[in-house]
């Protein structure tokens, strides 16, 4: 089997670009393709699973909405897989197992004949499938640590862009397949895309210089709660920012269609502008963070989230909603580029665990956002419900500013010592 190894960039330049490094290195190149397929598959299925439960299995709207609570198993599964990965160093082996689990889970949903089956499959199987992405980022971290480049953060950002690109295309593909072939064939395609993640990696193995023995020595015991506190605090702030997404996707289309009566094409353009802005800003965020610092830039991004939700709540015009979505694109351009990097740095002795905790936290934020949005919509209605995610984002911005100051104080103290 092939091991990842240092790659010589065929150029006279002393500082090759991140894109050239990714294209030249088999692990980075393969991970980029794999994450694109991951984003494509998951995002194709996610918006349509509730419709499938209602139309194919006879669920009520209330019961169909409860399906998303099964995602709460993902953080537990992610932690278990991450801890195993940190003990053994088998990042890519566990990635392949998780991808196969994802394939089995989506095939099971495609052929479900009883309402309880998708719920059970999602809770038991797909939670582990979601850990695949964290394993790839852990493997990339290992390789960049063993064979550092001058563009380490840029490499991670480019690989992360592939996941975002998959999320841009996936919903369109899923809606097309469901409309012309049906839900079940669409889920089969999702299953194939999930399994196909393992194809780009071929026979690659984990970084040679980080053997299982070295991983076992470095992580002979699980990280203590005290060691994990900075990561937990950062993830909690990320959850506050992400909680607004479930509120937005639930209520912004309703607001545009039922109260503003916008044309479908205009509503679609408003929804679609965010991921495009995000894709453009991911590499920009890496460059800017070198001057501002990552935590400081993420605090600014969270403040953009406050402004975005205020636009949704008070503008009452298509232009205001466009402005809000562009600001949300800035939010996720920054967090998509820098979030996983910061999470791994906050727990450097257990990067797979850190990756899993951070990436799987979106399930918790979706549940919190869904609950808060539902209660808020009933209490204050549309569009004022968007004040709630604005408050969550404000909490995150304040918390990130505080984290940045603590980090700066710690660095000053270390320099004095």
Structural notes for this entry:
- The structure is a single chain.
- Helix 1 packs across helix 2.
- This protein has a two-stranded parallel sheet.
- It starts with a strand and ends with a helix.
- With 417 residues, the chain is mainly alpha-helical.
Descriptive terms for the model:
417 residues
Q: How are the SSEs ordered, and which strands pair?
A:
Blueprint: E1 2-3, H1 18-24, H2 26-45, H3 49-57, H4 61-66, H5 73-88, H6 91-110, H7 116-129, H8 132-146, H9 152-180, H10 183-196, H11 198-201, E2 204-205, H12 212-218, H13 225-259, H14 264-292, H15 294-314, H16 318-346, H17 351-380, H18 387-416
Parallel strand pairs: 1-2
Instruction: State the end-to-end CA separation.
Output: 47 Å
Low-confidence stretches: 209-214, 216-220
Strand content: under 5%
Strand sequence of the main sheet, in spatial order? 1-2
Instruction: Kindly name the structural category.
Output: mainly alpha
Total strands: 2
The biggest sheet amounts to: 2 strands, parallel
The number of helices is 18
| CA-atom Rg in angstroms | 21 Å
Overall mean pLDDT stands at 87
Shape: globular
What is the chain-wise order of helices and strands? EHHHHHHHHHHHEHHHHHHH
Percent of residues in helices comes to over 70%
């Amino acid at each position: 089997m092939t091991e990842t190894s240092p790659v010589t960039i065929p150029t006279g330049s002393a500082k090759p670009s991140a894109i050239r490094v990714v294209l030249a290195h088999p692990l980075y190149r393969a991970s980029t393709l794999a994450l694109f397929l991951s984003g494509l598959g998951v995002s194709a299925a996610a918006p349509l699973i509730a419709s499938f439960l209602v139309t194919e299995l006879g669920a009520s709207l209330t019961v169909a909405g409860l399906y998303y609570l099964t995602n709460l198993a993902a953080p537990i599964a992610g932690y278990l897989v991450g801890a195993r990965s940190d003990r053994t160093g088998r990042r890519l082996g566990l990635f392949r197992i998780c991808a196969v689990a994802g394939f089995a889970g989506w095939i099971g949903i495609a052929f479900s004949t009883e309402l309880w089956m998708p719920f059970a499959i999602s809770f038991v199987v797909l939670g582990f499938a979601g850990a695949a992405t964290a394993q790839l980022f852990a493997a990339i971290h290992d390789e960049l640590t063993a064979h550092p480049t001058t563009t380490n953060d840029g490499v991670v950002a480019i690989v992360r862009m592939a996941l975002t690109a998959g999320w841009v295309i996936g919903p369109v593909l899923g809606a097309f397949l469901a409309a012309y072939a049906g839900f079940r064939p669409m889920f089969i395609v999702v299953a194939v895309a999930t399994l196909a993640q393992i194809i780009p990696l071929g026979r690659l193995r984990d970084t040679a210089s980080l053997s299982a023995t070295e991983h076992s020595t470095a992580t002979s015991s699980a990280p203590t709660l005290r060691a994990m506190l900075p990561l937990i605090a950062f993830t909690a702030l990320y959850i506050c920012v992400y909680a607004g997404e479930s509120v937005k996707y639930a209520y912004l289309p309703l607001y545009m269609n039922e109260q503003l009566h916008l044309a479908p094409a205009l509503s679609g353009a408003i929804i679609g502008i965010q991921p495009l802005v995000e894709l453009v800003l991911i590499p920009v965020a890496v460059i800017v963070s070198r001057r501002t610092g990552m935590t400081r830039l993420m605090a600014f991004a969270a403040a953009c989230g406050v402004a975005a939700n205020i636009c949704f709540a008070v503008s009452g015009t298509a232009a205001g909603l466009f402005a809000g979505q562009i600001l949300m694109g800035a939010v996720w351009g920054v967090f998509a580029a820098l979030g996983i990097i910061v999470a791994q740095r906050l727990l450097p002795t257990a990067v797979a665990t850190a990756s899993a905790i951070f990436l799987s936290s979106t399930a918790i934020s979706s549940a919190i956002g869904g609950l808060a949005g539902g209660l808020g919509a009933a209490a204050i209605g549309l569009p004022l419900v968007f004040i709630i995610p604005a408050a969550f984002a404000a909490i995150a911005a304040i918390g990130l500013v505080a984290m940045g100051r603590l980090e700066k104080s710690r660095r000053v103290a270390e320099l004095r010592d």
